[in-house]
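forwarding from the other thread:

> can someone predict this with magnesium ion?

sure thing
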Amino acid sequence: MSEQESEQEKAIKDAAQALGRGRLVAFPTETVYGLGADASNEDALKKLYDVKGRPSSHPVIVHLAHAEEAEKWCTNISEAAIVLGQIFWPGPLTLVLRKKKHVLDLVTGGQDTVAIRVPSHPIAQALLQEFGGGIAAPSANRFGRLSPTTAEDVRSEFGDEVAVVLDGGACEIGIESTIVDVSGDRPRILRPGMIQAETLAVVLEELGFVPEGDSGTVPRVPGSTASHYAPNTPVKLVSSADFSAFLEELEHQGTDTAVLAFRAPPVLHRHWITAARFPAHYAHNLYRNLRKLDAVGADLLLVEEPPLDGEWVGIWDRLLRASGSKQAEEECDGS
Ligand code: TXA
Ligand code: MG
C-alpha cells in the first residue's frame, strides 16, 4: 500500500469516527461535495442545519453504502424504485421513498418521505462502509449558494466550522444528482441531473409507467425571480443568436461583463471562459467556472444559452437557478 493510500485510509477512519461522535464531515461524491452528519443523530443534524444556514423544514438526502440498506430507512418500496436502484446505484440518482417511523423529522422536513442515494465515489463509499450507517448530506455550501466541486471550495465556504474535509479532487459530474420521487403511484422527476429524463423514461416505460409531469423539460418562460445556487454577480442568460449584439450593447454601456460562452472572445477579454460543447464536460466545470467568473467582481455574468435537450436539461436547471429565473419547486428547493 502506498503512503498516500494509507494516509487516505486513516483520514476516512478518522472521519467515520468523527461522524459517530456527532461531528460534521465534508466528503466528495461523484456529483458535488456533501456536508455529512449521522442521519440518526438529532444533535448532529441540528448542527448541520446551523452550519449551512438552512431552514430545518428543508429535507436532506440520506446516503447509504448499498441499495439493500434502503430497507432500513424506507417502506413500500415499489418495483420502479427497485429497478431504478439496481440500474443507477451506486451513482448520481436520488430516490424519494416512503420513510420508516424511526427516520427523524430533521431528515425529512417532517414529511412522510425520505430521499436516499447510494453514491459511487470511492471516498464516499469507503466513508459509508466504515461508518456503517446513513449519512445525511446536503451539498457542502451555505444555503442558496453554488455547490462545491472541490475540497478547496468547501474550505473557503466554511473555514474552521467544518473540521474534517476529505479531499477527493474535483467531482466528476459537477452538478447535483437527479431526484426521482417514487413514493407515489407514478414516478416524478423533482430535480433534473445528468441521468436524463429520457433514460429514466425508457426504464420506467418498460415497467409500464408513464413518468408524470414535464419536469424533464425546462420552462422557456421562467416564472419567478427566486435565487438558488446563485453567484453574487447577477447572471444573465442570452441565446446564441442574440449573444454578439447583446455583448456589444453592454460594452457600449460600459458594463463590466464576465462571460461564459461556447465561442472564443472576439477580442482579448480578461474575464471570458470558453465552455465545452459536450454536456458532461460543461457540467463538470459549471460551478467552477461560475465561481471563477463570480470572483472577478464584474457587474454582470453573461452566459450563452446551451441547447435545451438531452443531457443539457440538468445544466439548464442550474443556469436558470443561478440567474434567479427559476423558482425552486416546493418539495425540492435546490439548497
Ligand atoms: O448530488 C447530490 O444530490 C448532492 C450530493 C452531496 O449527494 N446532495 C444534494 O443535497 O444536492 P441538497 O440537500 O443540496 O439537495 C437535496 C434536495 C433538496 O432540494 C431537498 O429539498 C430534496 O433534495 N429532498 C430531500 N429529501 C426530500 C424528500 N423527502 N422529498 C422531496 N425532496 C427531498
Ligand atoms: Mg444543495
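The chain has a mean pLDDT of 90. thats all i got for now
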